[in-house]
């Protein structure tokens, strides 16, 4: 796409153009209009409606922030974002519930890591209660463990409903949300940025904000930037408990700090169903919600990125275990029995999968924190996995602050 300065004529279609109608993009639009009323904001979403990918395909957990390293963006934004999100849900009638959760150690070698989480929770000011085996059963009669901590501030909500309400609030503030508009070209000039969508629409903005999630690295390259990472999609595979009354709330294992996934856990959602999972396996497409979904060009992009192979060499043992549980329901059930010993294969029913947009650096490092980068006239959100939905309101404010600074 070529947009000449002479043909441009100085007429902007909006001040800030946000690419991506997930919860982070909508939170950014919301923050822009609150921080600078009168700012003309347009959101482009390639799907027919908002929140069709990571926002609408997750377990709905409002994370407390206990897992995250003090000082990290994840810690800062999850701690403030969880309280803000609960307030937003209450004010706007979005279904939500504060349930608390158990983090359960089932092996002795997990006890030091569990104790470290107690200390981290106290550093963050999160209410944490230490439990022994009998006390675990008071909270969750069918769960077994050597020790656990109960985190009182964790909750659940419907993030799709949060996004829908954000879209309504943004619309009432003058934001234009245009669905079914996939960005296929971008042209950045000293005066601003112009983009063209698959429909042929051209929009000109002073500042571009990239919240494209699974496609954020592609959008960064369209804008002329080297993001220094690639999105490697991981499919999160879930099962549903046939008798949800067997689990009262949220039950998590002690996480392995060497890997950014939390392991197989039990989540009672806002609708009362209990989801178990996920397995985290490489997806063969960025929107590869089924194992059979393959997009050769996207797969070739994953395989050609040097970080993919370095990541595989570093984490192959962990990955082999995830893949084994994906292929074998018996192996998956065995993993679940660590927390819920009475479960059988017949108790588990397949549930819809999600895809995590995981940023992988060139050296094979899995980006663990949120990653936000600025370039001339652009702000790119390049890594926003869980707890991004929980932290979406403060993330949106940070992205909006950076965008307004570029106007």
Task: Describe the overall structure.
- The protein is α+β, with helices and mostly antiparallel strands and 407 residues long.
- It has a domain at 1-95 and 157-228 and 362-407: FAD/NAD(P)-binding domain (3-Layer(bba) Sandwich), CATH 3.50.50.
- The protein is built from eleven helices and 19 strands.
- The strands form three sheets. Strands 1, 2, 9, 10, 11, 12, 18 and 19 form an eight-stranded mixed beta sheet that branches. Strands 6-7-5-14-15-16-13-17 form an eight-stranded mixed beta sheet, sandwiched between helices. A three-stranded antiparallel beta sheet has the order 3-8-4.
- Helix 3 (73-92) packs across helix 11 (392-406) and helix 9 (306-327) packs across helix 10.
- The model is unreliable at 2-9 (pLDDT under 50).
Short description:
It contains 11 helices and 19 strands. It is of the alpha+beta class.
Please report the first level of CATH classification, the CATH class of one domain.
Alpha Beta
C-alpha end-to-end distance = 23 Å
Q: What's the CATH architecture name of one domain?
A: 3-Layer(bba) Sandwich
Total strands: the figure is 19
**Mean pLDDT figure:** 94
Number of helices: 11
Give a quick account of the main beta sheet: strands, pairing sense, barrel closure: 8 strands, mixed
Fraction of residues in helices? 25-40%
* SSE order: HEHEEHEEHEHEEHEEEEHEEEEHHHEEEH
**What is the CATH superfamily label of one domain?**
FAD/NAD(P)-binding domain
Give the radius of gyration.
Answer: 22 Å
């Amino acid at each position: 796409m070529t947009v000449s300065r002479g043909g441009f004529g100085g007429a902007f279609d909006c001040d800030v153009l946000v690419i991506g109608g997930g919860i982070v993009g909508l939170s950014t639009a919301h923050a822009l209009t609150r921080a600078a009323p009168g700012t003309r904001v347009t959101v482009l979403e390639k799907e027919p409606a908002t929140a069709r990918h990571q926002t609408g395909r997750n377990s709905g957990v409002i994370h407390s922030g206990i897992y995250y390293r003090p000082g990290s963006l994840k810690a800062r934004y999850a701690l403030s974002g969880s309280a803000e999100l609960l307030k937003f849900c209450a004010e706007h009638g979005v279904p939500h519930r504060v349930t608390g959760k158990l983090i359960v150690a089932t092996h002795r070698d997990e006890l030091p890591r569990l104790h470290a989480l107690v200390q981290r929770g106290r550093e963050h000011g999160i209410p944490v209660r230490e439990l022994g085996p009998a006390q675990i059963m008071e909270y969750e009669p069918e769960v077994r463990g050597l020790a656990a901590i109960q985190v009182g501030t964790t909750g659940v909500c419907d993030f799709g409903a949060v996004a829908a309400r954000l879209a309504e609030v943004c619309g009432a503030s003058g934001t234009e949300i245009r669905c079914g508009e996939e960005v296929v070209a971008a042209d950045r000039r000293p005066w601003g940025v112009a983009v063209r969508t698959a429909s042929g629409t051209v929009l000109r903005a002073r500042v571009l904000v990239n919240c494209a999630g699974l496609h954020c690295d592609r959008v960064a390259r369209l804008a002329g930037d080297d993001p220094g990472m690639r999105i490697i999609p991981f499919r999160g595979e879930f099962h549903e408990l046939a008798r949800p009354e067997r689990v009262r709330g949220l039950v998590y294992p002690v996480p392995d700090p060497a890997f950014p996934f939390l392991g197989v856990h039990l989540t009672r959602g806002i609708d009362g169903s209990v989801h178990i999972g996920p397995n985290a396996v490489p997806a063969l497409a960025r929107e590869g919600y089924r194992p059979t979904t393959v997009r050769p060009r996207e797969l070739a992009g994953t395989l050609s990125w040097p970080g993919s192979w370095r990541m595989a060499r570093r984490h192959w043992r962990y990955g082999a275990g995830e893949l084994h549980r994906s292929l074998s329901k018996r192996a998956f059930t065995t993993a679940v029995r660590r927390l819920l010993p009475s479960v059988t294969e017949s108790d588990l029913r397949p549930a819809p999968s999600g895809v995590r947009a995981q940023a992988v650096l060139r050296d094979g490092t899995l980006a663990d924190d949120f990653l936000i980068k600025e370039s001339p006239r652009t702000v790119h959100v390049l890594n926003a996995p869980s707890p991004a939905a929980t932290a979406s309101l403060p993330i949106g404010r940070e992205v909006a602050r950076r965008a307004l600074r570029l106007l």
